[in-house]
């Protein structure tokens, strides 16, 4: 199993975060806080009208104060529960939402690249992650 001490885990999470932040449009909340991929994921999952257990879990953690921290916790939750590919796929279903959140260079806006990314993430479902949540 992959644990918190694994170098591969840190590399994987850094790459996932880079991918989710790449060409992300700058958006601000009502109070001026910069939105991040966490906000994109929450909106995408909310549009599917499914309450995601990972979102519920992360929002219940009082120690997490920033969107980036919440996003990282969500990625870890999804890895442990083998839900990363499915969760991201749900967020990528709506082309209008993708254009609202990402500029044209984002790989999520390319159907071919999006399929490649999701295919790789579905392969991670075979890996056991034992991470502290």
TrEMBL record:
Primary location: cytoplasm
Keyword Transit peptide recorded: no
Classification of source organism: Eukaryota, Metazoa, Chordata, Craniata, Vertebrata
UniProt xrefs under InterPro entries: Run_dom (IPR004012), Run_dom_sf (IPR037213)
GO CC term, one of those recorded: lysosome
GO biological process: autophagy; cellular response to interleukin-4; plus-end-directed vesicle transport along microtubule; positive regulation of autophagosome maturation; positive regulation of transport; vacuole organization
Residues annotated as domain RUN: 3-133
GO molecular function: zinc ion binding
Protein name, entry field: RUN and FYVE domain-containing protein 4
Compartment(s) of residence: Cytoplasmic vesicle, Autophagosome; Lysosome
One Pfam family here: RUN
Function summary: ARL8 effector that promotes the coupling of endolysosomes to dynein-dynactin for retrograde transport along microtubules. Acts by binding both GTP-bound ARL8 and dynein-dynactin. In nonneuronal cells, promotes concentration of endolysosomes in the juxtanuclear area. In hippocampal neurons, drives retrograde transport of endolysosomes from the axon to the soma. Positive regulator of macroautophagy in dendritic cells. Increases autophagic flux, probably by stimulating both autophagosome formation and facilitating tethering with lysosomes.
Keyword annotations from UniProtKB, A to Z: Autophagy, Coiled coil, Cytoplasmic vesicle, Lysosome, Metal-binding, Zinc, Zinc-finger
């Amino acid at each position: 199993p992959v644990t918190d001490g694994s170098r591969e885990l840190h590399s994987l999470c850094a790459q996932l975060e880079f991918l989710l932040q790449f060409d992300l449009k700058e958006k601000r909340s009502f109070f001026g806080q910069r939105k991040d991929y966490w906000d994109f994921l929450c909106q995408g999952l909310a549009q599917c009208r499914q309450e995601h257990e990972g979102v519920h879990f992360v929002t219940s953690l009082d120690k997490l104060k920033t969107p980036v921290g919440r996003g990282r916790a969500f990625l870890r939750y999804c890895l442990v529960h083998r839900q990363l590919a499915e969760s991201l796929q749900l967020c990528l279903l709506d082309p209008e939402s993708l254009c609202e959140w990402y500029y044209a260079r984002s790989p999520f806006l390319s159907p071919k690249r999006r399929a490649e990314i999701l295919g790789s993430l579905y392969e991670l479902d075979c890996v056991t992650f034992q991470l502290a949540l």
